[in-house]
Amino acid sequence: MREAVIVDAVRTPVGRGKAGKGALHPVHPVDLLAHALRATVERTGIDPARIDDVIGGTVDQVGEQAMNTTRYAVLAAGFPETVPATTVDRQCGSSQQAIHFAAQGVMSGAYDLVVAAGVESMSRVPMWSNVGPGQDPFGPGVAARYPDGLVPQGISAELIAARWGLERGELDAFSAESHRRAAAATDEGRFAAELAPLAGLERDESIRPGTTVDVLSGLRPAFEDPAMAQRFPQIDWRVTAGNSSPTNDGSAAVMITTPQLARELGLTPRARLHAFSVVGDDPLYMLTGVIPATAKVLERAGLSLEDIDLFEVNEAFASVVLAWQRETGADLAKVNVNGGAIAIGHPLGASGARLATTLLHALEQRDARWGLQTMCEAGGLANAMVIERL
């Protein structure tokens, strides 16, 4: 089987995702994704006609993000009309799944050169826009299987905190450290090589330098609900806006090919896509799939946890990463070394490609070899992958 390698990875700065409040709000989602796609071509100097497919991830595929956003981003980027595109939805892991599909296509011989990407404009297409009033996205079959009902992600984050005994102070301390690391990475220029500035935005907009545990400790619980308190008496309401990821706008793109074609095109293979996993897990706890996904991808890679130099674990909520750490025993000094989604932001469909972009650059900056990335996803899903810097 052929190898799949990354030759470029780029992202926009992540903008605040509140309507009218962020620098990227004026940018249509199609143009937001087109910017990252165009940047990959400009940075590599390839003829875009060589691209066999563009696979993009978007979560809320409605309104301005409907009708196969990735196809129209390809056209908006100025690529030839002959370059095809599709848009996938594996919730928060959509663009990580796009990377998996792209790499697997290259490895199988179905593609020679492909771009995996993702976009989400949460300021223009708010979360849950794709579910209308009174509509049930789950159906009677799911209701019959789970008669007590599934819960929103915030409640799942609370259940995780309760099950793993994560105190409010731990969640807030982890979140403050995410902001500290992200602010330091920004100030020291560690994000510069991965960013394609847009709309006057040159740095991630949600990072709050100087965030402290004292500041975060003053925030009220974000998901407190009397009905849920009665159903789940173990919850004592530790999850706040400060130890959760914000809503954001952003896009990212990763160019994948074979080592042979990379050399033919005058490009340097920067990392090998080594192993992949995708798992299903308890949809009530919803966000714990990163634990079995990590175990599965390490087994497939033939590696141990100790072999991994750097981890990117999506910070949907602090409780998710800390529960993952409790189960795996990973060294938090190796996890999200440049900060994570709590600070940088979580533009849903773009986050998988954003994490991959940040992971690749961090491995290069630290002269490290192995990186592992994993993301929790709504419905009790998770992706994981291992990359090897070359």
Automatic annotation (TrEMBL):
<feature type="domain" description="Thiolase C-terminal">
    <location>
        <begin position="268"/>
        <end position="389"/>
    </location>
</feature>
<dbReference type="InterPro" id="IPR020617">
    <property type="entry name" value="Thiolase_C"/>
</dbReference>
<feature type="domain" description="Thiolase N-terminal">
    <location>
        <begin position="5"/>
        <end position="258"/>
    </location>
</feature>
<dbReference type="InterPro" id="IPR020616">
    <property type="entry name" value="Thiolase_N"/>
</dbReference>
<dbReference type="GO" id="GO:0016746">
    <property type="term" value="F:acyltransferase activity"/>
</dbReference>
<dbReference type="InterPro" id="IPR002155">
    <property type="entry name" value="Thiolase"/>
</dbReference>
<dbReference type="InterPro" id="IPR020613">
    <property type="entry name" value="Thiolase_CS"/>
</dbReference>
<dbReference type="Pfam" id="PF02803">
    <property type="entry name" value="Thiolase_C"/>
</dbReference>
<comment type="similarity">
    <text>Belongs to the thiolase-like superfamily. Thiolase family.</text>
</comment>
<keyword id="KW-0808">Transferase</keyword>
<protein>
    <submittedName>
        <fullName>Thiolase family protein</fullName>
        <ecNumber>2.3.1.-</ecNumber>
    </submittedName>
</protein>
<dbReference type="InterPro" id="IPR016039">
    <property type="entry name" value="Thiolase-like"/>
</dbReference>
<keyword id="KW-0012">Acyltransferase</keyword>
<dbReference type="Pfam" id="PF00108">
    <property type="entry name" value="Thiolase_N"/>
</dbReference>
